[in-house]
Amino acid sequence: MSEPVFSPALTSDEGVQLATELFRDTFGTNPQGVWYAPGRVNVIGEHTDYNGGLALPIALPHRAHLALSVRDDRTIRLVSPQTREAVDELNLDEIGPKGSAGEVKGWAAYIAGVAWAMEQAGLGPLPGFDAALYSCVPLGGGLSSSAALECSVAVALADMAGLELDGQPMAGSAHAPNDEGRAQLVTYCVRAENDVAGAPTGGMDQAASLRCHEGHALKLNCRDGSVEHVPFDLAASGLALLVIDTKAPHSLVDGQYAARRAACERAAALMGVDLLADLDPANLAEDMGHLRHLALDDQTATCADAASEIADDADMLVRRTRHVVTEIARTAELVELLKNNERLEGDVLASVGELMNASHDSLRNDYEVTCPELDVTVEAARNAGAHGARMTGGGFGGSAIALVDADAVDTVAQAVVKAYEENGFNPPAFLKAAPSAPAGRLQ
Ligand code: ADP
Ligand code: MG
Fold it and tell me: Same domain for 133 and 184?
């Protein structure tokens, strides 16, 4: 059997050195500074963000490092060794949203898009810049390598251009904006991803990368963007969070995310609420019965499908809604467990694991966003002694997480590798997640 392959996180010194060398080799001078932003993994609270619910991400120790110098013109030049896509010189006067004449192709959209969004918000004109990116966040593994790019450039530009965030000058204040400033940067990064890169994601990834605290999970209220830092010191409890990148081909993703969002919007409209987060989990059974009737009546009146199809559709809507309502409740419950217990052990640890397991099962059965690789991962991890395991991120591939004893990381990883071999899947990759620091400046 093959041994599990772990993707290590670069240390700050390594990140600075690699990004600086790349900058020097490419542009022939030293950068003015090196900034970084982490990827993220969501502990619980999946597909809740666009429903106004709760999520609980942590920042990863895996970061995008960005060596950058501002220029005295409006040109942007970029380099990254993690992609073969070369970037032509861009110009800040020419870039625009996807679908416009200024559309930016490829990964440069995540970087140039942030500068564009800042100028759209009235923070310009910004200087052009040269930037060398060296990231150890796995690309496309559901760990937000894209948000890491955006957030690294957001902190770098805010710093170098001396932007006033929340009315506070950022440069000169140890190069670290306060949380209001960071919340503002989140909005520019989300705009870059939605409008310039053209990926319709919620704001969880960027909030995690910019607003998490080391040793804490971020309770993110997606309705109003408010946050709370919840202690999550795994090492102190002798625990580790193992991330398994399934490497599953994302063949089914197209249209599925939009379909889930549309189902949630339909259910909310039928129930007469703005967002599914408005439904009280205490009334779950009653609300779901009510929703089923409303969906049946609505479809019977408006569509010509056979009765059995209309019943299936109502059932689908109930299951999607049930996932969202119960997932928000599970997230709130897990937050309370973390807040009320310094150490995760005994019954408390068992309850945390059960909530993670229930989250996965709900995403598999009710929300139907898992895939064979994710289900096999979770089952293998649980059988090998994980306290809890679940898919994380949007689903249909990407990554899963397992909460394990610190000394069981290798055993659980080996069990996953074995299960993949038995099922004929691509080999997975692993990384160890510890709640890490948010985006900032290194040098
Ligand atoms: P995820 O954010 O889950 O990793 P996405 O599909 O949202 O997956 O983002 C992946 C994209 O982000 C890549 O296709 C690439 O365009 C860009 N990207 C991420 N990291 C890098 C990097 N180190 N160098 C160049 N582009 C990158
Ligand atoms: Mg992404």
Answer: yes
Please work out whether the CB of residue 253 comes within 6 Å of at least one atom of ligand 1.
Answer: no
Concerning whether 405 is annotated as a catalytic residue, the answer is no
Cβ pair 402, 389 in contact under 8 A:
yes
Burial 235-271 (b: 16+ CB within 10 A, else e): eebebbbbbbbbbbebeeeeeebeebbebbebbbebb
* The two structure tokens encoding residue 327: 């997932």
Q: From the CB of 83, is ligand 1 less than 6 Å away?
A: yes
What domain count does the chain have? 2
Q: Per-residue pLDDT averaged across 346-375, rounded?
A: 98
Instruction: Name the residues around ion ligand 2, CB cutoff 5 A.
Output: 144, 146
Whether residue 393 contacts residue 399, with contact meaning beta carbons closer than 8 Å, is answered with: yes
**Neighbour order of strands in the sheet with 216-221:** 54-55, 216-221, 227-231
Same domain, 300 and 378: yes
Range of the domain at 401: 239-433
pLDDT tens for residues 116-155? 999 999 988 999 999 999 999 999 899 999 999 999 999 9
Query: Which pLDDT belongs to residue 165?
Result: 62
CA of 107 relative to ligand 1 center, distance in Å: 7
Do residue 252 and residue 226 come from a single domain? no
Per-residue DSSP letters for 59-115? EEEEEEEEEEEE-SSSEEEEE-TT-S-----EETTT---TTSTT---TTHHHHHHHH
Distance 59 CA to ligand 1 centre (A): 16
Cβ atoms of residues 297 and 283 within 8 Å = no
For residue 58, report the distance from its CA to the centre of ligand 1, in Å: 19
pTM, 2 dp: 0.95
Residue nearest to atom 16 of ligand 1 (CA): 107
For tokens 């995403």, name the residue. 363
19 touches ligand 1 (CB under 6 Å): no
The count of residues in the chain is 443
pLDDT at 174: 46
User: In terms of DSSP bridges, do strands 75-79 and 129-135 run parallel, antiparallel, or are they unpaired?
Assistant: parallel
* Residue 442: strand, helix, or coil: coil
Residue minimizing CA distance to atom 10 of ligand 1: 140
